[in-house]
Design goal:
The chain has a domain of 33 residues. Helix content is 28%, strand content 48%. It starts with a helix and ends with a strand. It has a four-stranded antiparallel beta sheet with strand order 3-2-1-4, with no helix packed on it. With 64 residues, the protein is an alpha+beta fold. Strand 1 and strand 2 form a beta hairpin.
Length: 64
């Protein structure tokens, strides 16, 4: 019985954590040599990712 309760709790927390994953939206970008730095506004602040130059920054990303 305890084993089933633990499994149910793990499943519930897994569903809750994915349900509340937040998105960050593109607020700017900077070219830096062979790379482009993309800036996103997330709930907890600004997040940056680096991509190859010539590629477009995604409009939104998952914020961790």
């Amino acid at each position: 019985m305890k084993k089933w309760i633990i499994i149910v709790i793990i499943v519930i927390f897994g569903v809750i954590s994915t349900a509340y994953a937040s998105k960050g939206f593109l607020i700017g970008q900077t070219d830096s040599g062979l790379y482009t730095i993309c800036y996103y506004e997330c709930v907890y602040g600004t997040k940056a990712i680096t991509i190859k130059a010539g590629k477009l920054c995604p409009i939104s990303i998952e914020c961790d």
